[in-house]
């Protein structure tokens, strides 16, 4: 007997009930109704030989017997029924999920940026490269692509020569001007394969060149090789190319030594994490070239004004770390406060404008042998965020006070008409932790309810996960309106699109979406992708 239609009917019935319960606002569900629902699923699933469904319903029933709750709210149901919600999602998308990439992304996966206005090619390359377990971000617009390059700091750049507004050579020149001291393997691709084009690509700084149409097998092999070269290069370099101070790798090696020395000598040492104030604004207003100049000047200014036994390291972006041996928090606080004042008196000029720069710092002094490197670093980082919260251009050490710093807020919105998807994504996001950032997550079942919400209008950074196809107002219309708002610069947008919706992907990218993921998606993969993006947006 063919049981498939009965199985499908059961799953649809379960989904309908979950959708009803998970859409409750103020109302509650009685415990006896929840018990009957799960008991019914257990009985029917066993009859239909749905072993996984029977197992989940049995486990939930067991947990329910230990619960004393008489009434269940929407949030409580959301958490309690999550295993069942996940199973429903997998059943609904079983055919498509089976064909997805088996390699699961991890947070340290190489990041590849593709810039190409040919969306068909862009989608193809992204799909092929992500089957290798690499994370790929895309862009069709040369202007926003350069900005994306500096924000996301890819491990490999793939750049088409034929682009609108400005060609690939101009984009590469712009990037090279601003980051010529960084080693980022660059592959140029083009429909033109004449000798002059190839030579020019190499002269401009490309590491490789591919003619369209592309031999995918050879292309993947070469990308792999370039990523390996990049990894080897990063492992051996100890000096930051731009600022000429020690880099993050050397810092982590040295910090271990400082902790060992402390255990041997019992002499305290201090760690300070420093961040240049409003650095993004400097880049946005005066360009990355000026931003790099500030970074260079800052690093060298600090280096000149600390003791020879102190060491400055570039931690990443505009963040630096200084380790002060044999020094307490009070001494470091006084020195850094003096350095803030001194550096702020340096005047930068750009065309007809002038500006000055300040920095903020957080301190932690190691004077307890049981404190770990991770704990000490986290304490210094929390002090830095406290300094930022109090207005910047200052030094803070929470160790010396009883203050508790307030985390910065990142609004996250999930706009999707499918209750199951919304619930899955919210549970996934709730499990993500970003240091010093409070994730303020809200769910919306359609575009208007999101656009009219206070959550959408708040003047804080915002990560928006937007379904492409929705009733009332589709995702592209919502995206267009978001990009017209005065706080549009605060938004990063991830579009959820249909697997075959090339037009939808193309329109989303042209309207300013920062990335896209096709439905159905692997939840673990999506979590890694989002976590990495959120960490880069800190």
Integer average pLDDT: 88
Strand content: 15-25%
User: Structural class of the helices, strands and pairings?
Assistant: alpha/beta
Shape: globular
Q: What would you say this structure looks like, in words?
A:
The chain is an alpha/beta fold. It is 50% helix and 19% strand. Helix 2 runs antiparallel to helix 3 (51-65) and helix 17 crosses helix 22. The longest helix is centred in the middle third of the chain and has 21 residues, at 216-236. It is globular, with a radius of gyration of 26 Å. The relative contact order is 0.08. The mean pLDDT is 88.
List descriptors:
538 residues; alpha/beta; 5-stranded parallel beta sheet; 5-stranded mixed beta sheet; 50% helix
Structural topology:
Elements lengths: L3 H19 L6 E2 H17 L3 H15 L5 E2 L1 H7 L1 H11 L1 H5 L12 E5 L3 H12 L4 E5 L2 H11 L3 E5 L7 H12 L6 E5 L4 H9 L4 E4 L4 H21 L11 H18 L3 E8 L2 H8 L1 H18 L5 E6 L2 E7 L3 H16 L3 E3 L2 E3 L3 E8 L6 H17 L5 E2 L11 E8 L3 H12 L6 E8 L2 H5 L2 H4 L4 E6 L7 H10 L6 E8 L3 H10 L3 E5 L3 H14 L2
Parallel strand pairs: 3-4, 3-5, 5-6, 6-7, 13-14, 15-16, 15-17, 17-18, 18-19
Antiparallel strand pairs: 1-2, 8-10, 8-13, 9-10, 11-12
Helix pairs in contact: 1-5, 2-3, 5-17, 8-9, 13-14, 17-22, 20-21
Kindly summarize this structure in a few lines.
With 538 residues, this protein is an alpha/beta fold.
